[in-house]
Design a protein that fits this description.
single chain; about 160 residues; alpha/beta; five-stranded mixed beta sheet; 5 helices; about 30% helix
């Protein structure tokens, strides 16, 4: 009898690869983020990437990161990958885990907690010391959400 293949990818690798693929839908010229929500059976229930609100014309907004007023910057208009994954979920994400290519900001962490996400698996943590990410960690910790950084063994080999 033939044995099962041994060199298959883990669920973590699978879902993080999917997060990277969906991030390629983002039109943001500086930051592309993708997120995947999976339930306790490792079934994907939601995907999201960062972009402007659904059914809006991209030319109505700016992609600028700097500006005099908030309304002069993309941050006033962008929907983050994590919140889009929640909006796009096929069912309530209670007790689920989310994979994100970037550690979630405080606003996304509030949405994750409010929707019952129990684990955050992230790849990049490049804004670790920025205030909104410090606040994010505090929110997730207070809600008992497990957070862990995933580093692909395949990325290490290349």
């Amino acid at each position: 009898m033939e044995k099962a293949r041994e060199n298959f990818i883990s669920w973590d690798e699978c879902f993080m690869c999917m997060a990277h693929v969906i991030s390629e839908r983002s039109k943001d010229p500086s930051t592309q983020v993708g997120a995947v929500i999976a339930d306790q059976h490792n079934i994907v229930i939601g995907l999201g990437y960062n972009g402007f609100p659904r059914s809006t014309d991209d030319s109505a907004f700016t992609w600028e990161r700097e500006g005099e007023k908030m309304s002069d910057k993309k941050y006033a208009y962008i929907c983050h990958a994590e919140e889009n994954a929640i909006y796009n979920a096929s069912k309530q994400p209670k007790e689920c885990k989310i994979y994100s290519t970037l550690f979630p900001c405080n606003e996304c962490s509030k949405a994750l907690v409010q929707n019952g996400i129990k684990e955050v698996i992230f790849e990049s943590d490049k804004y670790h010391d920025d205030d909104m990410f410090v606040a994010s960690r505090r929110i997730l910790k207070a809600a008992g959400v497990t957070c862990r950084q995933y580093i692909s063994k395949y990325a290490q080999e290349n």
